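As a point of orientation, let us examine one representative protein, giving the amino acid sequence and backbone structure tokens.
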Amino acid sequence: MPSYPHRTTREDLRVPLPDGTELYARLWRPATDAPVPVVLEYSTGRLTDWTATEDARRHPWFAGHGHAAVRVDARGHGNSGGLPPTAASADLLVEDGAALVRWLAGRPWCDGRIGLLGTGTAGALALRIAARVPDAVRAVVTACPDGPHRLGGAVLAADGHTRATAHLADAARPPDPLYVGDDWRALWLARLDALEPPLADWLDAPAAPAPAAAVPTLAVAGWSDPSAAAVLALAERSTAAVPVRAVLGPWPHGLPDELLPEALRWYDHWLRDADTDTQDTGALATPALRSWLGTRWSADDPWPSPGVREVDYGLDGPLRAAGTASEDRWVRVRSPQHTGLNAGSYVPHGRPADRPPDQREEDGRSVCFDSRPLPEPLELHGSPALTLHPDPASGGAMVAARLCTVAPDGTSTLLTRGVLTLPADPVDPAAPDPVLALAPVGATVPPGHRLRLTLSSTYWPWLWPDADPDGFAVDPSRSTLTLPVHTPATSTDAAPFRSPTLPLPPPLHLTEPLTARPERVTVHDIGRREWRTELSPATDGTRTHPDGLVRAEHTVTAYRVLTATPLSAQARTDRTLRLERPALGWDITLHTRTELRCDATHLLAHTQLRAEEAGNVVFAKEWHQRIPRELP
């Protein structure tokens, strides 16, 4: 155990909610009789196994630096009581979180000051709870708050059904008898009976507004994470009354260890009295946005930065499509349906196959607009935008855009991308042209490289294909790519971040499969003109926990599409989870599957759940859903 300013203790708690439901919690706190501030992480994860390793590394570290750290399983999850909230009761998680905050503030070991911590879904939930009880929550640290399930009017294929399958499987896990006792089975069967697949509710939800902070907030993400835009939106809304500090770096999804000292500094500033508890941490002296630009850390204050200027690249001038006849006004885009196979993962988790590979194959399936070689380095910092003048006959088509940098040897590296569904109804000629927003980017393009903008009419398996395979046409002379160009002299270099020395987690024995599957494999069946992609996450394998729990997981996600037939697209995820306690004779297996197909107007979802106890089926259910492609 590393040496910290405070010795720590750990205990498990039951937190009563106003309706009598009890939440399962784990508390690490300094070994002192004096009340201290609390850092709360409240999640639908399962703290006794799924998040146990990270919890055991990070929360004792916060406690060793003077904060009580509390990790709580949400209602209907893990070892907490109650049923998993449905779409109709989704706000219950926020209400429970608010009640949890107030309960913690009343504990004798808490001085009444609460900070929230969350990653992904829990990161977005922390922002909502803080908005519900801003009088009780003093500060938030949010990492990678969840992104949308639709992009530019198109429906996500990547991650959506996989996440929905994982969500269903996780909610179907039984309470652990080692921590709950003999009541686990009754609680489990009630939980299973209440479950509903979440995908339809996710896709039926209207687009959420850009997130705002209700209390001082530190927001963190990686540039390649879909939450990067949300982090920039939080930074843009920073005020003197509710300050926000943001960090965007070269990280996968999650809260990187390097940012834990920043989180501690943020909590120390807002959860302590600077004149009595500690010296000024300097948290507010940090710039509004610190970001990695490929060659350096940049510090920009304020954000948006006055050092970022918009530079226009016309698609018939600085960028130009090779081979386009000069007398043809329109450039036509009609992509094969497997365009997008080299997109990489929608939510990167740091695995090698998550990263988009060389984009030359994708470029060959798209229409490309190239610049001349750059005479000097070009820093991009912010959100590019593409203004398109489409052929009126292209109404309803999907436009996928990628921005790449092309090295002298031809290597094409993805910088950012975006999608837009063109209006289906006739457009008023006097109306402004549609604008496609590309994801934020922080990068430095070396001299001698070229910029490449590519357009395609499909992007599978990230997005469900348009039913019409004819694509679209644009007028390059009236279309413009606007890039956020950063002037290095207008910002200072920020110091790099350093990982702290964290406690060693409890020993976890991993038995990997003898025949491990590749993370990602693609097969082209030339005779059928079919492309198939299979993904298998690195979480597969059997893990034996220090408390005797044996947890085995196996997941396979598959996509298929015929080259010229958009409505042939299919996606499926199979997930098997087994939980065993040999000493108790406890043996649970969960099988979940989500299959998706599409027609011109709907996604057709078939979801299956089967739960077994000691090899005997105790619950089985199937759901068939038709989910509209377009919001009402």
User: Anything to note?
Assistant: The mean pLDDT is 91. The chain is about 15% helix and 35% strand. The CA atoms of residues 480 and 487 lie 21 Å apart. The radius of gyration is 25 Å.
